[in-house]
Structures are given as structure tokens and as C-alpha cells.
């Protein structure tokens, strides 16, 4: 197999591994939250989280670049170097980037209890009393990077709240309506667990 073919296979394989890891990571989070009576999901600043994740990808490639320059073996092992760069970048995202983003990019919280659904963004707070009747307005939209989003508005006679969340891999949106713009804030995909509970309660 030529170097070019090896590189293409390696890149495609790396992407497949990343998708599988993301899917397993998401499913584990959903299962953990689904087993809890009360659920809290931190809300991150998209810009801050993206910046942190991008920075977390840099140390590995920088180290490889320094070692390659020191040994002057880059040309002879170009394919191996590129594949190693991809592996280290993905490793940085999963081992460091996601953890740092959760710690330093948080701007709010989505909290569910059997009695109340609460949304906090900085000093602002919205809540829905789940002991009273409420309605769900569900729609589909595309967000940053053209990712598929679920838009959810929870309405109640004396108020309500709204947010969007990235659809977990393999999940379809609830509701047949598509909208041009999503509702902020943008929450992580495990908000699907809260959404499912709200739908179950309205179906009773």
C-alpha cells in the first residue's frame, strides 16, 4: 500500500474511532443521568469551550514537531508522523479538553427535579413548576457548524423557559417543525434525558 493510501486509511480510521468514542461517551452520560432523580447539566459558553478544546489539541502536535525537527526523520516517516499527530490531538480532546471546558467555560446550569425545572444563566433565572400543567413546543434547527439541534420551549401560564441542545448521535428531533434560528442557551446533548422526562410527564 502506498504512503498516500496508508494516510487516507489512517485518517478515515481516526475519524471512525473518534465517532465511536463520542457516541460511547454520550451514551454513558445519558445512562448516568437517567438513573438520577435530580439532574444538573452545566451550560458552557460555546466560544470558551471551543477555544479550550482547540488549545488542548496543540501540546501533542507541538511535541511531535519538536522531536521530528530534532531527529530530522520527518520525511522518512511522514505518514507515521501525521497519524501520530491525529492520535495525540484526539487524546488531548478526550483526556484534557472536555474536562477543562466543563470547569472553566461554564456560564449557567439546567436543573431538573420532580418538582421543578430551572434554568440559570449568570444572574438570570427561569423556572417551571412541574406540579402544574405545562406545554412543550418542540422544533428542529441547525446551529454552529451546521450541527443538528433540538429546540425546546416549556410554556406555563405564569412563565416558562427555553433552550436548545445538540442532538446526540443517532437521535432524531422531537416535533415536525423546523425553525431558522435556534433558541439560546445551547446545552449539551444529555439534556435529551430531561426532555424525555418532560414528555413522559405530559403524556400522563
Short description:
It is built from five helices and eight strands. With 204 residues, it is of the alpha+beta class.
Task: Describe the 3D structure.
By secondary structure, the protein is an alpha+beta fold. The protein folds into two domains: 3-35 and 46-104, no CATH class; 108-202, no CATH class. Helix content is 47%, strand content 25%. The protein contains five helices and eight strands; from the N terminus they run αβαααβββββββα. The longest helix is centred in the first third of the chain and has 32 residues, at 3-34. The chain starts with a helix and ends with a helix.
The structural class is alpha+beta
Q: What value does the Rg take, in angstroms?
A: 21 Å
| Structural domain count | 2
User: What is the averaged pLDDT score?
Assistant: 76
Which H/E pattern describes the elements?
HEHHHEEEEEEEH
Fraction of helical residues = 40-55%
List key phrases describing it.
single chain, 204 residues, alpha+beta, 4-stranded antiparallel sheet, 4-stranded mixed sheet, 8 strands
List the topology elements.
Layout: H1 3-34, E1 39-44, H2 46-56, H3 59-71, H4 78-104, E2 106-112, E3 116-121, E4 124-129, E5 135-142, E6 148-156, E7 159-166, E8 186-187, H5 191-202
Parallel strand pairs: 7-8
Antiparallel strand pairs: 1-2, 2-3, 3-4, 5-6, 6-7
Amino acid at each position: 500500500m502506498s504512503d498516500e493510501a496508508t494516510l487516507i486509511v489512517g485518517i478515515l480510521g481516526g475519524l471512525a474511532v473518534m465517532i465511536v468514542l463520542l457516541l460511547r461517551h454520550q451514551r454513558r452520560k445519558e445512562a448516568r443521568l437517567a438513573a438520577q432523580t435530580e439532574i444538573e447539566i452545566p451550560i458552557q459558553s460555546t466560544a470558551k469551550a471551543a477555544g479550550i478544546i482547540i488549545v488542548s489539541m496543540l501540546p501533542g502536535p507541538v511535541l511531535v514537531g519538536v522531536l521530528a525537527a530534532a531527529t530530522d526523520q520527518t520525511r522518512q516517516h511522514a505518514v507515521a508522523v501525521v497519524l501520530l499527530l491525529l492520535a495525540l490531538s484526539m487524546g488531548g480532546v478526550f483526556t484534557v479538553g472536555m474536562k477543562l471546558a466543563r470547569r472553566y467555560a461554564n456560564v449557567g446550569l439546567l436543573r431538573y427535579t420532580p418538582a421543578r425545572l430551572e434554568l440559570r444563566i449568570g444572574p438570570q433565572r427561569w423556572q417551571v413548576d412541574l406540579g402544574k400543567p405545562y406545554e412543550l413546543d418542540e422544533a428542529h434547527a441547525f446551529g454552529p457548524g451546521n450541527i443538528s439541534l433540538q429546540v425546546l420551549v416549556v410554556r406555563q401560564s405564569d412563565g416558562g423557559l427555553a433552550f436548545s441542545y445538540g442532538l446526540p448521535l443517532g437521535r432524531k428531533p422531537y416535533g415536525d417543525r423546523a425553525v431558522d434560528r435556534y433558541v439560546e442557551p445551547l446545552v449539551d446533548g444529555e439534556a435529551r434525558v430531561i426532555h424525555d422526562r418532560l414528555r413522559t410527564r405530559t403524556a400522563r
